[in-house]
Amino acid sequence: MKQVIYLGSNGFPYGMAQIQRQLYISKALSQAGYHVTVCSRKGVYRKHKNEYVSIPMSGSHQGIDFLFSSGVPFYQSNFLVRNLLKVVGFFGELGFIVGRKLSGNLDYLFVNTISLIDLKYYSVLSKLLRVDLVYDYVEQVGELSVSTGSSKNFDSVFTKYCDRIIYISDQLLRNIVPSIPESKTLKIPPLTDFELFRKAEDDTNNSSAYFLYCGSAGYQKVITFIIDAFDQIDDTQFELRLIVNGSATDMNLIRQHILGSRKQQRINVLSGLPLDQLIYQYKGASAMLIPLRDTVQDKARFPHKISEYLATGNPLITTHIGEIDNYFVDNENALIADDFTVESYCEKMRLVIEHRQLAQRIGVAGYGLGMRHFDFRCHSEPLQEFLSK
Q: Is 358 found in the same domain as 380?
């Protein structure tokens, strides 16, 4: 059995979009016959969050092995301890990788870091150990440099340090070719587990009609845009549910904007939901909201939430930006606003209110599309072919 170590992010098996992508690419690899271990250098979990108190230093999650090479899965508030564990995590990770290679149990390093320094380090390590480095490219990293401290020139130089590249959008492919031959690249969109959503509890007696958005509270412009669009619709039945998590500052800004809405009584903010409750809220929605902006970042990325939204069978409302037109057709398998304007987006939201049966048919068609392209099981064979070239 071929062996993969997945590196570059911290916090597997629970976390936001990048951790979910690690999980579902790992599951696709596992289904193709690979053994995957995800290694996190440092702990990120907070002990006060009840759902995380029992996370071990190493274990298995949905068939995927994982470990924290620092030996501690939890964030340490003490500055000295925290920085000491960073050193321990670095050398622990190195020892784990080298040990796997020496025992003949390492064939590929999968990496998804946005740190150019870390990528260079993993590249040197892969060459010394004579294993391929496969990079998962999901963002125009230079656009994140202000908020994350990543290198502004990352996108123009990172291909030098990769043997193979998985990419999420055609926009990102332009940064790869011709530096890397197309035969060494593979496009994988956002992934989820459609079977998980199918089996999840559903509220068959739900009488509430609501639009739903789920995402980081840091996407302030998107969230305020959604609130403004909802505010413009002349309707007294539908609610807006915002499932958002983030800093106290960002959460307060959202609540302040809601206070300025004439529909503030029908806007609900939910946070910190466990997975079963999150899926429950998803499946009960009348439509799922994910407007993309006309920015370099949104043209290049492809939000993980799109895969989850499709798995509910509810209609998706988005915009004609980036990857959307490569998969979706307006009024057939999604509702696609012409542009990122309140007026255009409102038009699609009104369709859900005024034409319920049409919206439901669009949701069903979106589910079928999702099963063909966004379920992790669809990508096991392409991954196997990609790695065998």
A: no
